[in-house]
Amino acid sequence: MKDELNRQSLVANLKVVCLAGGVGGAKLADGLAHIVPPENLTIIVNTGDDFEHLGLTICPDLDTVMYTLAGVANTETGWGRAGESWRAVDEAARLGGPDWFRLGDLDLATHLVRTQMLRDGESLTAVTRHLTHHFNIQPALLPMSDQPAPTMIETDDGTLPFQTWFVKERWQPPVKQVVLPDDARATPAVMKALENADLVIIAPSNPFVSIEPILNVYPIRAMLMDLPQAVVAVTPIIGGQAVKGPAAKMMQERGLSVTAGAVAAYYGDLIDGFVYDQQDEGALDGLDAAGLCVDTWMRDQSDRIRLAQDALAFAAELGSR
Amino acid sequence: MKDELNRQSLVANLKVVCLAGGVGGAKLADGLAHIVPPENLTIIVNTGDDFEHLGLTICPDLDTVMYTLAGVANTETGWGRAGESWRAVDEAARLGGPDWFRLGDLDLATHLVRTQMLRDGESLTAVTRHLTHHFNIQPALLPMSDQPAPTMIETDDGTLPFQTWFVKERWQPPVKQVVLPDDARATPAVMKALENADLVIIAPSNPFVSIEPILNVYPIRAMLMDLPQAVVAVTPIIGGQAVKGPAAKMMQERGLSVTAGAVAAYYGDLIDGFVYDQQDEGALDGLDAAGLCVDTWMRDQSDRIRLAQDALAFAAELGSR
Description:
The structure is a homodimer.
Chain A: H1 2-12, E1 16-20, H2 23-35, E2 41-45, E3 51-53, E4 56-58, H3 60-70, H4 87-94, H5 105-119, H6 124-134, E5 140-143, E6 152-155, E7 158-161, H7 162-168, E8 177-179, H8 188-196, E9 199-202, H9 207-215, H10 220-226, E10 230-234, E11 237-238, E12 241-242, H11 247-253, H12 260-267, E13 273-277, E14 290-294, H13 301-318
């Protein structure tokens, strides 16, 4: 109990930045949001898989994090909203529209308001602030960039926009290369958050298509490398498997072993500590990073909070580099 | 009976063009669609009240005509679809989006598919052909122009986009002037239909904000003036009142008497015949146009068909100029 209080007081005043993709990132961000005072928490979200669909600007990772923090996410599918209906997209499909990306009626509201605001000249950062305000979300949710920074997936059948590969092709075509834009620039809000960060948590998102697109945005990787404070990543691989999505398959295709250690090695110098699962004891043997071996599987909200606490305390203890 | 057969055979092979705005135009177009072979019927629709809303391209008159011909229109409201739900726009309003223009979930499907196709580079004519095909509508439904040709309403409080005045302000601000674009151009499909027309029916739509925007599109007015065949208008004013909408109010504001005769006089040389209601006997006294005095109120579908038959037979009998 005393230990717990000490750990909480240790992190209460720290400014925390979390880099997040979709589902795994959203869950850890939710855990963090329950223990970090909102003014001290910034979540920087991948926008590499944003795209235009049915004339609307869709930001899948931003929305997954937003819906999760708001408590309105569909926890069964891992995307979209709970209690959803499908009147508009079912009718659009009947009218010859595309049906491979499902936009529920409630979910559509987000895209409609976002698209109108973007067309009115607002930045994605401002739009996201507006939406999170109306979802009663208090921590800062920031797109990594205000300009489109599309992630492309090179396959044997050509180079596909991310969502075409991920959703339409159900991430089955082997990935020859993840192609990231060379002109993506971070927003002022992102840079300010990183400048002021006391610690950075890299969420258990896909390293190649969720986290790497964020690191690729100039100057985020350089700022993280130069940061005097600890950067800690949480493993997306547990017991040789990805909790969700294509991370394990992509590691195999890259010739990597599908292990937590391989993820830690992939992040390399960027991170100071790595949180991995108790199933994977010894995962960091031979690696330079400090390790924390705990239960990293987030089945419910108490798991999210516990993992967030563990990762925060670990990063706080690592302290300055 | 023999008379009826003669009248039907008289019009069976005639190529009919109908100029239409919203509700009144949709009803007469529906009547025409029941008696004119589909390959002989073209409906040219006002797009002056088209606008962008929630990032989507909305074409209110095209959609009212389309939904009416498809039998899916909401006949109570005069706009939108029957059996509609409002999940997306209600949620968009909760998220701080505009709530003055109601887009139902089924209706949204039309705007989503249209907006995607327009962004993909298709013309509004092609998009409308696609949508009407999927609604199993056989006559040709043509936007008057493929370029935006916005109708603006000059009021004491400034010049408003049409839908702002019509829906948001419930057409209450007095109209100082209807401002139409001076660079609107007809589509090739519209010009071909007018070239081949054996008769033209001007639907009982608002003369100033539904029909005039069509006539204003170059070279539609000139083509109608030069057409050797009959042009017949159907009155939107019955017994000194507009069946629906601001026509009567606008006539008062212009200092016109609110009568069928004043509408006929407004169209002037453009028309060869005018169909007016039996309530308004003697409406054309002192005017040059040929008149047909019948029951013009369209309460149900049999009324629509009867009025369409009357107008067609009248125009066919007027024949060439």
